[in-house]
Amino acid sequence: MAVNKQHFYKRIMVAPTALAKPARPVILVSGNPLVPEDSIALRILPMLRQRFPQAEFREFDSAENLEDAGKDLIIVDAAEGISKVELIEHIEDLEQSHAYSMHDFDLSVTLRILLKIKAIDSVKIVAIPSGYPEQKALQEAAVLISTLLSKSA
Fold first, then answer.
1. Is 118 left (phi over 0), alpha (psi -120 to 50) or beta?
2. pLDDT 10s digit of each residue in the chain, 153 long?
């Protein structure tokens, strides 16, 4: 059976673009479910998914490939030293830890490296105070997430 390769390749390469779904914005959520002070973002995650069905919420570990979520990251995480939910837009605002081995890398170090090597363009962190009440965290985080999603649309 003879196959017209040129015709075959054209059929594969020319796919209708109308069928492609637009990518949903990705919001990364971090925390340790075993540590109450570090689990607030994970505890409100189901409610965030309900409130923002247009976004894809992904749980992550800071050691994973964050750049897979896109060039402009949105992260929800617990933070110490703040009294209300805040938006951190400048990586310089994060406390920098000293990394002496690969086991010492935290989110701040990972983000600094990704920015330096241009694997990501920006990062916005919705920081929730450790020990914050869930309903208050949800309300305040939702306002910030709504603003971020409207800017990315």
1. left
2. 454 545 444 444 444 444 333 478 999 999 989 998 899 999 999 999 999 999 999 998 766 788 888 899 999 999 988 999 999 998 776 765 544 434 345 788 888 889 999 999 999 999 999 989 999 999 999 999 999 999 876
- Report whether 79 contacts 130 (CB < 8 A): yes
Q: pTM (2 decimals)?
A: 0.79
Q: Give the tokens for residue 71.
A: 């060039």
Choose among 132, 135, 143, 129: nearest CA to 77.
Answer: 129
Query: Domains of the chain by range and CATH?
Result: 24-152 (3.40.50.1450)
